[in-house]
Amino acid sequence: MESTDSGSLPTSPINPSFNPGVEFTKQTVNVQVKQSTEFHGDPGDTYRVRSNPKGWVLLINNEKFESETFSTRLGSEVDERNLEALFIQLGFKVLVRRNLKKDEMRRELNSFSDLDDHLASDMAVVCICSHGLDNGKIITSDCKEIDVREDIMRKFNNEECKNLKGKPKMFIFQACRGSEKDFGIIENNREPTRSLKSTGVDAIQFKKVPTWEDMLIVYSTIPGYVAIRNHFTGAWFVQSFCKVLMEKSHNTDVRRMLDGVAWELREFQGEEGHVESCTYESLNFYKQLFFNPGMFE
Is the pLDDT score of 168 beyond 70? Predict the structure, then answer.
């Protein structure tokens, strides 16, 4: 069985006669991260991620909600387990929080932003699994909304989080971003295809840097669309994300891996014929990022 992370769209029972050409249910991901044997990337063009731990992860999983408008996110415990295992094996410390109300969620985000341990670590990750709406809204367990940009990401910019200034910050959102479903198109047996100049300013006395820097934001789906979650094996995106990162993190840049996650997600097709597309964006994410699991300095 499958559900969306908008909480309001029912799904039909499995139809044994429906044969889309892919499996209805893939096997549960067994997270086993391949370890690096050397550090990768040119030091001048690569973020330094060599501390032990490499960084801290705040993983918030809202599974249960106070209103029937937002259904229990069956399968989300599988996502939580897989993501926690993935990041631990990549070399991170993981803080797991479950079923947070709006005030609790804001408090946890503030506490994580203020964490002293960020100073000795090389990066940070915020991962939120919940129901979501369009216009960048995440639903808390008391069925209130928080804003992705203002309530979450802003807490980690250069102004709000000095301990992470100049360090990569990764945000992962497993949530719907609207109510539309993508039913895809039929392929024709073809292979799939896939500077502004600033003006000078006189009498500059201090060099400034952007407030929003070194941020990589990963979404399980594109704007306006639902994200699909299997009740037994977890969200399609999380399955794809964990599979690619556990196989490729030992020698592959993170943005190249995210392109691979999109390709892996392309293989999923739902009971009703729908498909899903993930996306990511960067805010002044200047360099390559290699996790180099198993390697520390």
Answer: yes
> Tens digit of pLDDT for each residue in 80-106?
999 999 999 999 999 999 999 999 999
Query: Could you count the other beta carbons within 10 Å of the beta carbon of residue 83?
Result: 27
CB 290 within 8 A of CB 40: yes
End-to-end CA, the chain: 45
Give the CA diameter of the chain.
73
Interatomic CA distance for residues 22 and 154, integer angstroms: 40
Question: The dihedral of CA 294, 88, 253, 123: what is its sign?
Answer: negative
Quick one: pLDDT at residue 209? 80
Average model confidence (pLDDT) across the chain: 89
Nearest by Cα to 145 from 121, 162, 123, 128: 128
What's the pTM? 0.88
Q: How far apart are CA 84 and CA 78, in angstroms?
A: 10
Total Cβ atoms within 10 A of residue 279? 15
- Contact call for residues 146 and 137 (beta carbons, < 8 A): yes
